[in-house]
Amino acid sequence: MSENSPKVSMILLGPPGSGKGTQAEKLKSYFEIPHISTGDMLREALRDGTELGLKAAGFMRSGKLVPDELVVELVGERLGKDDCSKGFILDGFPRNIFQAEGLEKIFGSSEEMVFSAVSLDVDEDIIVNRLSSRRVCEGCGAVYNTKLNPPKDDLRCDRCGGKIVQREDDREVTIRKRLQVYRDETSPIKEFYREKGILREVPGDGDVEEVFERILGALGDDRC
Hints:
- This protein is of the alpha/beta class and 224 residues long.
- The strands form 2 sheets. A 5-stranded parallel sheet has the order 2-3-1-4-8, sandwiched between helices. The protein has a 3-stranded antiparallel sheet with strand order 6-5-7.
- It is globular and about 55 Å long.
- The chain has a single domain (8-33, 86-219), classed as Rossmann fold.
- It has 8 helices and 8 strands.
């Protein structure tokens, strides 16, 4: 991406198992802009010992959710860094209308910052099938898929010989509950951006490259 390339700023939406993380990394490389997830942002603020990071740490240590107002401030702090000068990919933010409105206020006076909200849409049964097929090694954390990438021995890890297990989060009942929570949280966000004319809904089924090309096509010539 050249110095004269337009800014590319996007919010990436997608339920668990939609392939959002994989696509975010591909978009990061393609556009040469940072991929900023809420979790990574909080960890970075804590590591750097910023004032806002220390405030967030107090809530996290007590097992409480970081308040929306503080999350918005942390996002503003992160987006003010030099590596975001060409744009950024936000992952896991905003989670509600308050945060979405807060994001607009961060760049309210910056006309050159234009957002796209890209939603990866995948049928729930496909997601359940994807996630319920996942297995993890208790020893080294290696990840397998019983249909696409199974271990040679159903019970033991190819890498370290550790026990292969299915995490509670990857059981069908739990997955469907997580998807319901996502729908409840995200539906208002999608409608918020649809009304603004910047929502790009992309089918998330298919192989990685196919979905990536769909995203680029949905972003169009301006890509931002």
